[in-house]
Specification:
7-stranded parallel β-sheet; 9 helices; 7 strands; 15% strand; globular
């Protein structure tokens, strides 16, 4: 692709299974990529592979979701690395601790809220300020079906994702006149390192399937998706279970 026509996509959390799958999908469509995560060595391997396979430009940058005070400088560096030609931002950061451990350790609760809500909402604010006057682009944040109704098994994580979903709704309304797509992604169980070994897993999707759903939703300018699609109906049922019955269930 000619340098003047380059379209850059920033993927935050690019070392995750979904992040790598999305990077492959965008690279195959000839986008230039800016990959961000904590593990720069891992990102470098991914970047090299994508460059060789797809002949696209891929750059990497270190990112720590817990250091929210540094998100402004991180964003400025992202603009430099992408030559001021960002087309979209995809936020994949997530942290899913064991609920019983969160109840014993308030630092885990703080970390859960920071990684799943505070950090992405800060980055989304910076990105929205960038895209709004341009009147184009897309913002994507991965929330979770866990945010649709608080459940005893993961309500710390779920409440942070619920807050992110609400933030995205307000951001979508704010940017409606700016032609900026704001997509909320609600995955069910996905076969990733974050969910490995968790009890009660069912209907587990592959990272490639989720990445493909996200890619298609961006192209179609969707506002919100459940992935795989059937989680929309599973959560519809769960949301409508009466409280007196719901409180007796082990969910």
């Amino acid at each position: 692709m000619n340098a003047s026509n380059q379209k850059w996509v920033l993927i935050v959390g690019a070392s995750s299974a979904i992040g790598r799958a999305l990077a492959r999908r965008f690279a195959a469509s000839h986008y230039s990529l800016l990959l961000a995560a904590r593990d720069l060595e891992d990102l470098t391997h991914t970047a090299t592979d994508l460059q060789v396979r797809h002949q696209v430009e891929v750059r990497t940058i270190e990112f720590n979701a817990t250091e929210v005070q540094n998100h402004g400088s991180f964003w400025n560096k992202c603009q430099e690395l992408s030559d001021g030609k960002l087309e979209g931002v995809i936020l994949l950061q997530g942290f899913l601790p064991v609920q019983s451990e969160v109840q014993r350790d308030l630092t885990l609760l703080e970390q859960t809220i920071t990684i799943n809500y505070t950090s992405p909402s800060a980055l989304l604010t910076l990105a929205a300020n960038y895209f709004s006057p341009l009147n184009h682009g897309f913002l994507v944040a991965v929330s979770s079906v866990a945010g649709d109704r608080g459940r005893q098994s993961n309500y710390a994580y779920g409440s942070a994702k619920a807050a992110l979903t609400t933030f995205m709704q307000g951001l979508r309304q704010r940017l409606a006149k700016s032609n900026v797509t704001v997509l909320t992604v609600k995955p069910g169980f996905v076969d990733t390192a974050m969910t490995w070994g968790l009890p009660g897993m069912f209907l587990v999707a592959s990272p490639d399937r989720v990445a493909n759903d996200i890619f298609k939703a961006i192209r179609r300018r969707r506002n919100e998706i459940y992935t795989p699609w059937f989680w929309r109906y599973i959560m519809l049922i769960i949301r409508h279970i009466p409280t007196f019955i719901f409180n007796r269930l082990k969910l």
